[in-house]
């Protein structure tokens, strides 16, 4: 016996999912973030390389001017993406500090 997840159907698109995943700018942003992060989850003490999502540090809906800024993205595994989703403001400082430290470390090399 196999189990299948039920798909959710919406009468109209939810506000958080108004993006076009086929947009070349979105695809490039996503690819650039994954490459920068070495194709692994950037959540502290996690190095997962499977089921990766690219997460907007500052939300897509509230910050359209920085949607495709590479510094507004971080790679997270599915588990950690679900953990932070909807709580972006709580994690914004942590992720921003992490990215700044990562860039500074690269410059020292």
Describe the structure.
- The chain is mainly alpha-helical and 109 residues long.
- The protein has a domain at 33-108.
- The chain contains 3 helices and 2 strands; from the N terminus they run αββαα.
- Strands 1-2 form a two-stranded antiparallel ribbon.
- Residues 8-14 have low confidence and may be disordered.
SSE order: HEEHH
| Tally of contiguous helical segments | 3
Q: How much helicity do the residues have? A: 25-40%
Q: Looking across the biggest beta sheet, what order are the strands in? A: 1-2
What percent of residues are in strands? 5-15%
Poorly predicted spans: 8-14
- Major sheet attributes: 2 strands, antiparallel
Shape: globular
What class, by secondary structure content?
A: mainly alpha
| Overall average residue pLDDT | 85
Total beta strand runs: 2
Q: Could you give the distance between the termini?
A: 54 Å
Please give the radius of gyration in angstroms.
Answer: 15 Å
Short characterization:
With 109 residues, the chain is mainly α. The protein is built from 3 helices and 2 strands.
Q: What attributes characterize this protein structure?
A:
two-stranded antiparallel sheet, globular, single chain, mainly alpha, 109 residues
Topology:
Blueprint (H helix, E strand, L loop, with lengths): L23 H13 L15 E5 L16 E5 H7 L3 H21 L1
Antiparallel strand pairs: 1-2
């Amino acid at each position: 016996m196999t189990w299948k997840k039920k798909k959710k159907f919406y009468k109209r698109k939810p506000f958080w999912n108004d993006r076009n995943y086929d947009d070349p700018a979105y695809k490039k942003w996503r690819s650039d973030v994954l490459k920068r992060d070495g194709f692994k989850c950037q959540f502290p003490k996690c190095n997962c390389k499977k089921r990766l999502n690219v997460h907007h540090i500052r939300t897509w809906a509230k910050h359209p001017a920085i949607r495709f800024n590479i510094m507004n993205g971080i790679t997270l595994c599915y588990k950690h993406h679900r953990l932070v989703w909807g709580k972006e403001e709580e994690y914004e400082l942590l992720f921003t500090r992490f990215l700044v430290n990562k860039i500074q470390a690269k410059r020292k090399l």
